[in-house]
Amino acid sequence: xxxxxxxxxxxxxxxxxxxxxxxxxxxxxxxxxxxxxxxxxxxxxxxxxxxxxxxxxxxxxxxxxxxxxxxxxxxxxxxxxxxxxxxxxxxxxxxxxxxxxxxxxxxxxxxxxxxxxxxxxxxxxxxxxxxxxxxxxxxxxxxxxxxxxxxxxxxxxxxxxxxxxxxxxxxxxxxxxxxxxxxxxxxxxxxxxxxxxxxxxxxxxxxxxxxxxxxxxxxxxxxxxxxxxxxxxxxxxxxxx
Length: 241
What we know:
Layout: H1 5-8, H2 13-26, H3 30-45, E1 51-56, H4 63-71, E2 75-81, H5 84-96, E3 103-107, E4 121-125, H6 133-145, E5 153-159, H7 167-179, H8 184-197, H9 204-213, E6 220-225, E7 228-234
Parallel strand pairs: 1-2, 1-4, 2-3, 4-5
Antiparallel strand pairs: 5-7, 6-7
Helix pairs in contact: 3-4, 7-8
């Protein structure tokens, strides 16, 4: 899942095919995070509400749409992802679950979307830590904010600590892979890959600062799994991102 070309290049056909299984090992509680994200959106928008939801980085399975769409039958979705192999997986899942008719597919970037029609909510799950440097993260959050109604909720989820700043969490992450059958050599290779392959915000405080700069209110954190955290933040009613 990604939103900018440098990140999109990571998700080639080979990685796209492995994504479903690998993501559930790398993130303990993958399904629970998505379920709670849907519950948080419903708690904010109201059960049985009608809403248009922007799903940024929907490729790789469209789990955000599958979960929220089951809970809220009146919601419609716009799925955005620049990776064709990842989007193909999302399309297959949406069609299988009968949600393709409620989803507009956009192979590209948030900046390509018109800003004339504003969304009632958005999700950004597993995307931000793939954006290199704070400026690209800030740009992405501003792009999302500019397409949301004032007061609309954003679900933001991803890794939110610098990996080397949390050696215990990094070691536990390696043990998680060993628990799933990886050898010691495979664990070291995976640890090396994560250290080179992503650039998470340095802390939850930095996440809050990035959100505030883009015009969002203070986030409410609702899920944590080692480096991963998920929060909900509303777009400020008086801020023009």
